[in-house]
Each structure stands twice: as structure tokens, then as C-alpha cells.
Amino acid sequence: MQREQTWKWFGEAPLDLLVIGGGIVGAGVARDAAMRGLRVGLVEQHDFAFGTSSRSSRLLHGGLRYLAQGRIGLVREASIEKTIVHRIAPHLAEPLPFLFPTYRGNRHWVLWQLKIGVKVYDFLCRGRNLGQSTWLEPGEVLERMPGLAEAGLNGGVRYYDGLTNDARLVLDTLRSAARSGAGIVNYGRFTEATRTADWECRLEDCLTGNVTRVRSRALVNATGPWAEQVPHSRVKLRLTKGIHLVVSRDRLAVPDSVVMTEDKRILFAIPWGERVILGTTDTDYNGSLDRITADASDVAYVLEIANQFFPRARLTSSDVIGTWAGVRPLIAAPGGKPSDISRSHEIRNPEPGWWDVAGGKLTTYRLMAEQTVDQIARWLQRTRTPRPAFRPCRTADEPLLTPAERAEVSGILPPPFERRVVEHYCANEWAVHLDDVMVRRTSWQYYCRDARQRAEQTADWMGECLGWSEATRAAELHRYEAAVDLAAISGGSAPTDGTMRTG
Ligand SMILES: Cc1cc2nc3c(=O)[nH]c(=O)nc-3n(C[C@H](O)[C@H](O)[C@H](O)COP(=O)(O)OP(=O)(O)OC[C@H]3O[C@@H](n4cnc5c(N)ncnc54)[C@H](O)[C@@H]3O)c2cc1C
User: What is the C-alpha to C-alpha distance for residues 275 and 448, in angstroms, rounded to an integer?
Assistant: First the structure.
């Protein structure tokens, strides 16, 4: 459905379910509900995956760190989910080996404990992890990872998780939802709702300013870090910020992902094509949700840890090709270190027909959606006459897209830089603005050194597809510059050599 048709469709008859928020959780709920036969709408105030779901570490993981915290249930749940994503979206779930070197004197990460830990980790995937873990002698660690700090190295373990592309996972989930009949709109904001027999909702088209009133039997608040701000929400969050840096693999030649530790915390160096993703941080956050940036101090911290583990690399801020920063919408836990707060999720139903879904991880989005839609479907069946017959949940088995639907337009690495690819995003993936394509649909912004030149060409291609005037094209380039400047480092001190780039 085209944008105008979807707005019209919203108003034609009551929805069974309106999903607020087009991150991974909202996308997962919309897909599941549409596949079961509910009449579903979804609104996203910015672009899809604008929030945390395009700013993660891009890992499908059980979380070895959570195992060390004794959170076995959480690890088991996420471990099974990572294998499910691998099954339903193989193009967005690549097995990724992690090398975890251990050093004498590190009392938080002890070799014998890790050796047991990685075997338990494999077991928690019902023995079907994306690869089998192994133990390594110090010589084997260095053979696999030349350049790693040697002093005190006493061995290591190698285990598997998955690499994904967070924003692409959202978009492909939404495409799948739309194919099952969901009506989906980006740049559409939920502003308020009142409950009569159904919920009467006020939605704003952020592109035109038009207001549409929509009736829905049920509502899901899937607004991630914004969840507390939505009217009727009962969510209490603790937001913590994490940043990532992208450097060239020529500067840090890591064949596997590497786990780097700082006390109890762990950071990763993750190979991504010709690039390496370094991250992340975990600090309390109270700033604007629409303007989250990597501070100079965050960047310096990540580079310092990377240089401790790879002393010969001597990485500096001038090696940084791209950055992104996001906030984790964690369920509030007063006090304690941010990294100790649980990553588990909560589904609450504080008023008839209203559901808050919060917390969790990218990896567990499908399960969060299944549990939420189970509750909603049961409630609709109890309260509606005639009693609707919904289909059972099939999201763990049905592929998101067919190989033809995803070929060359969706994957872990950026797609080819071609006009037909951009045309596809405009025609089939709701791309409205230049940054929708440069940042979330392609990651060209983070991956390519010449992203700004590519943005000019992309603006030409989008302009032809979407009928932009010269003035609109100029405004789009201006908007893009502002959006990607947000991805640049703020706080002044790091980019002293003037060569800091975001693309
Ligand atoms: C630094 C970092 C690293 C991470 N790494 C990983 C990882 O490697 N693996 C993993 O599994 N998880 C990871 N996570 C966690 C994961 O990214 C999040 O749990 C997940 O993306 C949250 O998704 P969401 O849909 O709840 O929120 P979001 O993606 O933020 O989506 C919420 C959406 O709601 C929209 N919205 C808000 N208000 C309204 C409104 N009124 N009307 C319409 N729309 C609205 C917002 O614009 C936003 O797009 C990481 C998180 C961070 C911050």
C-alpha cells in the first residue's frame, strides 16, 4: 500500500491492533499479529529503526556476560532466539566466531571459568549454536589474532554468536508484516488516545501535518526509549547510552571478533566486511532522545581499550570512519551499575486493550512479539463477538522474505551502490528522506569513506523516483548533513586533527 492509501485504510474500519513505534519490537509485533489474521496498523514518528534499533552492536547473542551474572534463563531464551533468526532470516544472521583472550591477574574473567562457560553457552542453544566453542592455548590465540597484547596472556576461548544488520532486520520484518496485510506508516506520530468501546487514537502525519483519527481495539506501546512519554504508558525506564566506532580493517586486521575486557565490562572488535566495529559503552543517559551523539570522551575510552588489546594498532580518532550512538531502553532498576541492569523484557497490560512492551534485546524481539500477541489475541477472543478465529503464531518458522525479495537489497553488508537499489527503497521500503537510504536502508553512511559524495548521487536518484524539485533536493541534502552531523563526535576534544569523518 502507498502512504496515502495506508492513511485512508486506517480510517476505513476499526483496527484490531495499532502498534506505536517502528523499531524492532513494534515491527515484530506487527508481523506476528498480521500473520495471525489481525487487522493491524503501525505508526513510526521518524523513519523505521530511527531509534535504538539502528544503533546496536548488531549481534544476535545469548550474552556470555549475562551467563557470568548467573542469568541462565535470559541466556537460554536469547540463545534459542538467535538460532530462530538464523533460520527465518539467514541473510541477516551470519555465524560469527568470538575470540576471548584471558590474562593472568584478571579476576573477573578467569580462563577455567570461561572454558566451562562457553560449553554451557553451546548447551543452552539446545546444542545447536551457530558453531562449536573451543579452548585455546596462548600460542594458538596469537596465531589466530596476531597483534594482540601478549603480556600475561594465558590462553583463551573461542565461541559463536551471530552478526546481523539491525535496521535491515526491522525493515525486512516490516516488509513481511505488510505482505501479511499490515498497514505501515513512517513519519506518523501517535499523540493521544481515549478509551470508549474501542480506543480513539489521534495520529499525525509528520510530513503533511494532517491528523487522522483511528479506532483500534487494542494498542501496543513499543516505543523503546520513548516509552515513558507515551500517554497511558506505565513504563519506567533507565536509559543507558552506548556508542560504536567504525574503523578500516587495514588498521585493525581482526579475522574473528575479539572480546576486550575492562574490569567486569566487555567490549567488542567486530569484523564487518572491510571494516571493524568497535564498541560499546554503557553510561546513564538523560539527554534528548532525538539527538544522541558519541561524545569525545566515549570515543577516547573505546580507542584506549582497543589500543590496550592491540598496542601496535595505535588507533586515533583520525582512523574513525563512522560512529553511531544509541540508548538502551532498560527496565528501571534504581542504583547499581548500568551494565548490571537486567536485559530481560516486560509485557504489561495496565488498562483494557493497552499493552506496554519494554526492555529486552534485538535478539529476543520475536519472542517478545509472540508473547505480546498471544495476550492480545486471547483478549480479543474473550471480548469480541462473534469470537474471532486467529491463526497460531508462525513467526519462528516462516522466512521473513524470499531469496528474490531480499537479493542485493538486504544483507549484513551494504548493498551495491546502484540506481535500481535506491529505486527499490523508494518504491518498496517506504524511503522518504535521503538519510532513510544513506543511514538505515544501506549503512553507506557508516561504511563508506566517500559517503557524502554518494549522498549527492543518491539524492539525484531519489529525486527522480520521488519527483523532487531542485529546492527539495537541496533541502534533503541539508537535512542529511544535519542528521549525519549528529552521528559525529560531540564535545570537541577528540577530532583535534580535523580529519574526523562520519562517512
Ligand atoms: C549501544 C547498544 C548496543 C546494543 N547491542 C545489542 C546487540 O548487539 N544485540 C541485541 O540483541 N541487542 C542490542 N541492543 C539492544 C537493542 O538494540 C534494543 O533492545 C532494541 O533495539 C530496542 O528496540 P525497540 O523497538 O524497543 O526500540 P526502538 O528501536 O528505539 O524503537 C522505538 C521507536 O518508537 C518510535 N516512537 C516513539 N514515540 C512514538 C510515537 N509517539 N509515535 C510513533 N512512534 C514513536 C521511535 O521513533 C522509535 O523508532 C543494544 C542497544 C544499544 C543502545
Answer: 9
Distance CA 431, CA 146 (A): 42
Q: CATH classification of 74-163 is 3.30.9.10, yes or no?
A: yes
Residue 343 C-beta-side C-alpha neighbours within 13 Å = 27
If one residue of 61, 223, 244, 298 were mutated to test the ligand 1 pocket, choosing by the most ligand atoms within 8 A of its CB, it would be 223
Q: Whose CA is nearest to atom 24 of ligand 1?
A: 224
pLDDT of residue 489: 66
Q: What is the pLDDT of residue 498?
A: 30
**What pLDDT does residue 190 have?**
98
Q: 237-331: what CATH class?
A: alpha beta
pTM assigned to the model: 0.96
pLDDT at 485: 75
Residue whose CA lies nearest to ligand 1 atom number 3 = 56
- Spatial CA neighbour of 262 closest among 313, 295, 305: 305
The CATH classification number of 3-52+167-235+342-383 equals 3.50.50.60
DSSP letter assigned to residue 24: H
Instruction: Spell out, as residue ranges, where the chain has pLDDT lower than 50.
Output: 492-503
Query: Which residue, by CA, sits nearest to atom 2 of ligand 1?
Result: 56
b/e per residue 98-112 (b: at least 16 CB within 10 A): bbbbbbeeeeebebe
Atom of ligand 1 nearest to the CA of 282: 1
